[in-house]
Amino acid sequence: MRNYLTERIMKKEYYEGAGECPECMDKLPVNTEKEREEKKKILRQLLAKAAQGNYDEQNYREGDLLPEEEYCRYLEEDGNFSDLPGSTESILEAFARLACITERHHWRKGIPWESGERKETVLKAIIKYGRMEIEREDKGVCRFHKSLFYLPKTSVSMCFALYPDFMDAQERPEKQAPLVTEAMEVLLRVIFQCWQLPLRNNHTDAHPICVDRFRGHVWWIGANGITYRPVFYAAVLLCTPEMMDVLAEVAKRALTPTSHGNTDESFWKEGICADGLGWGHDRQNYSNGYPTQGVISALNILLDLKDTPWALRKEEICWEWVIRFMRGIGYMEYRDWVPPMIGRTSFECDGLYKPAVLTKYIRQIAIRVLNLAGDELTQEQLHLLYRTLLERSPERVGDNRVKGDTGCRYFWNNDTLVRKTEEEYVFFNMASSRCDGVECAHECADTRNFFLTDGACLICKDPREYRRAIGTWQVSCIPGVTARELKNEEIMPETNWQGYHSKHSFAGGAVRGEYAAAGFIFEKDETRKKDGSGKIYPEYCREMMGVLAYKSCFVFGRTGVCMGAGITDLKPEYGRNIRTTVNVAERLTDTLIFTSAGDKEQIAQGEERIWPQDKPVYITQNGILYGLLPQEGSGSRFLMRTAERMTKWEELNACNRKVGNESCPVLELAIDHGIAPSGERYCYFFDTGSEEPSGIIGNPPFHILENSENAQAAESADGKVIQAVCYGKGELLLSGSVYEIRLAEPAVLILEEKAGELYLTISDPLQLPERKCTLEYRRKEDAWKKAVISFPENPERGKQAVIRLEK
To answer: How far apart, in whole angstroms, are the C-alpha atoms of residue 43 and residue 239?
Structure first.
């Protein structure tokens, strides 16, 4: 089987070098000559099948493509587009045009060429602009999106459209016109760039066809590695078995988890997380982007390789990790709304676009797992996948139903607590030194999303409470966040691919049924890191820095309790008030204020109320009761505003510049800690139940046990549940009405008496290796008992442990 073009491009050391390289970690078996020939036949079959239609990854050009005649009027006889400059900047536009023309004349699906002259001119243009690309001397970081993603994709498209010419050039070059052979070789060389560029300045540059090529750098893993680069069709078109050997191995291992404790050992340092979400662009929750697309591409590769020498062996993959990931990312959506907490498009005003994409991704994962492993899965797994396909059918996008798993879930790799039920959605987004923040890119995406992991706590029964109100947000005053109060125009837009995280490693959570606890120590880290290209963006708004807070959130069924302690302005020279925002949501109903005695008052639009912390304030709106609870010794004040505010979407995301703004009635609740606070505290609760507010006000389902820099804790009204975030600053005694707990170590815990048994759910918020925790507990007046807890290890370090205690 002849591969004339491949022989001109593919050096043996490209695919044999890894076997001899002492630095390569992952070496694959060497093919015998017979195996190579058999695999080449399979690759030919895969190409013949794929080339029957247009290449379906046509996202290689911004904007709409024009009709063929619009381009041909500028196409000169020598292959030059007269309206394009003769620089490398014109290459992508020229290739996009040429792909549009050739697709129109696709050998199977298009119309015949009207004349040989036009086809000849197109081939000349391919050679002209293709050689401009492959002869560029710069091979480093500047060769990214265009040279790796867009141009190879246009070239694959043209090879498919010109498939008979391509095959003649590969197998019978002596019978093909030299112009055709040269054009096909140029296209193949451009395609091969997706394996070669940018240079990594390591051993894999000499032998790019190796597993190590797809590890250890953000540009070569996840979707950047196997989704946006057409690496699969490069292997098929180049008919090189070793390329597919590598991709099959990469696809299998892409479906294994990473975690904080095993990033050095895990195959990819982003992708599926052990907690059920996914990392993209390093350690940031990107469950609707890079990791999800990477997983789907891995599944696609494995599906395309079914019934080939590269096919999966039974039980070669632990499908439970993939299914957990599919279930986990489902928590990132509520009633066809994706909360503005994930990725650099968090503040893009896009209607149903993001939930439709997330639903599509979840469906694709379910379908592919069923096709690949339907005969290996348990009945429970099969039931879950079929239920997912029913719930996530395209017809149900926009139907406002709750889809996927429900209940409380803590994601320990992402410092995130979610409660998702038919009645409410709560999203508590924390920060730690282990995780990155949310990236931003002010020229093409979010401009000021710098507070999304600072303890943001979204609370809603209906996503309409936030859909428009987000456009009015002052980004330093996002619900749940404690920060210096800054106007949007005071915060410099920036590009920051790591986002902002906390200086402190303490962040953890625990969940048991209807109960959940999570907490962290927050102090925004201003360290600037290099991005994937080695660039540092040094400019930022320094006034965002210098606020310290110990923050927690507890869930008691339909009631949530949020506490803050140790709130201190470490940079008082920056001025301005420090405040904790409770919520900023659209007023879908009347706003009512209740007193402890049960009296109520309706609040008119345009009102502002400020109360000292001498008595509780209760406010209802949109079926949610908010209770602002006074803290002894605190000088903070309660604040409420009702106002008509104009959305200013263009301040939040570059893609919103053409979005029309509108007036939105909002309720703003906040706790004002004043200028230069030191050691301030807050406590508020929210209740989404259907009970009369007076019933909750008079008989809350919780009691506060402590709110300090050492611990934040609350118990259920009957005393049978204690929840605590213990910061480990000293000996601690949590004394509830029924039980007491004594410990001096960092932990997040839930103690529950249920059905005559006593259970402890506990996690290590520091995620230290081989750590054990010792605590004492007792029912009041009984003798103290000791419990020693061993926490899970890699890849589940950070996950909670559950033990049954002796009563």
So the answer is: 6
Average model confidence (pLDDT) across the chain: 94
How far is residue 70 from each of residues 60, 155, 257, 604, 667, measured CA to CA in Å? 19, 21, 49, 59, 53
**Beta sheet of 732-735, edge-to-edge order:** 732-735, 739-743, 772-779, 785-790
Per-residue confidence (pLDDT) for residue 271, from 0 to 100: 95
What are the C-alpha distances in Å from 155 to residues 152, 229, 415, 436?
5, 12, 42, 36
Lowest mean pLDDT among 411-420, 459-468, 610-619: 610-619
Tracing tokens 């090879």 back to the chain, one arrives at 159
In the block, tokens 């001109």 appear at: 8
CB 663 within 8 A of CB 560: no
Helical H runs in 491-647? none
Rounded-to-integer distance, Cα 101 and Cα 122, Å? 8
Q: Please state, as a whole number, how many other Cβ atoms lie within 10 Å of the Cβ of residue 608.
A: 11
3-state secondary structure labels for all residues of 592-636: EEECCCCCEEEECCCCEEEEECCCCEEEEECCEEEEECCCCCCCC
On the question of pLDDT at 71 being above 70, the answer is yes
Residues 6+ apart with CB under 8 A from 174: none
pTM: 0.96
Report pLDDT for 59.
Answer: 59
pLDDT at 174: 93
Q: Residue 673 in contact with residue 580, Cβ under 8 Å?
A: yes
The answer to whether 687 touches 696, Cβ cutoff 8 Å, is: yes
- The string over 443-468, giving b where at least 16 C-beta atoms fall within 10 Å of a residue's C-beta and e elsewhere, is eebbbbbbbbbbbbbbbbbbbbbbeb
Q: What is the DSSP string of 48-78?
A: HHHTTS--S----SSSPPPPHHHHHTTB-TT
* CA dist., res. 348 & res. 281, Å (int): 19
* pLDDT number for residue 82: 95
Calpha distance 480→458 (Å, rounded) = 7
State the DSSP string of 748-766.
Answer: EEEEEEETTEEEEEEE-TT
Helix (H) or strand (E) holding 252: helix 241-253
- Residues with Cβ within 8 Å of 542's Cβ and at least 6 positions away in sequence, in order, are 526, 574
DSSP 67: P
Q: Return the bridge partners of 641, or none.
A: 608, 668
Q: Which range (70-74, 529-533, 624-628, 658-662) has the least confidence? A: 529-533
- Match 């190579």 to its residue by tokens: 36
Question: How far, in Å, CA of 534 to CA of 492, rounded?
Answer: 22
Q: Which residue has the tokens 């348990």?
A: 378
- The predicted pLDDT at position 304 comes to 97
Vertex 565 angle, CA 482 and 476, to 5°: 5
Q: How confident is the model at residue 219, as a pLDDT?
A: 92
| Phi, psi dihedral angles at 633 (to 5 degrees) | 85, 0
Residue 140 pLDDT: 79
Q: pLDDT tens, 534-574?
A: 888 888 999 999 999 999 999 999 999 999 999 999 999 99
**Which amino acid is present at 71?**
Y
* Helices marked H in 315-429: 319-329, 353-373, 379-391
- Strand segments, DSSP code E, in 262-302 are 271-272, 278-280, 284-285
- Is the pLDDT score of 466 beyond 60? yes
Mean pLDDT of 665-678: 97
Q: Give the span between the Cα atoms of 361 and 367, in whole angstroms.
A: 10
pLDDT of amino acid 61: 55
Q: Give the C-alpha distances (Å, rounded to integers) separating 580 from 255, 271, 472, 480, 626.
A: 40, 33, 17, 6, 14
* φ, ψ at 755 (rounded to 5°): 50, 40
Angle at CA 707, nearest 5°, toward 704 and 710? 135
**Distances 754 to 191, 571, 719, 721 between C-alpha atoms, Å:** 62, 47, 12, 9
Q: How far apart are CA 504 and CA 380, in angstroms?
A: 40
The reported pLDDT for the residue numbered 55 is: 84
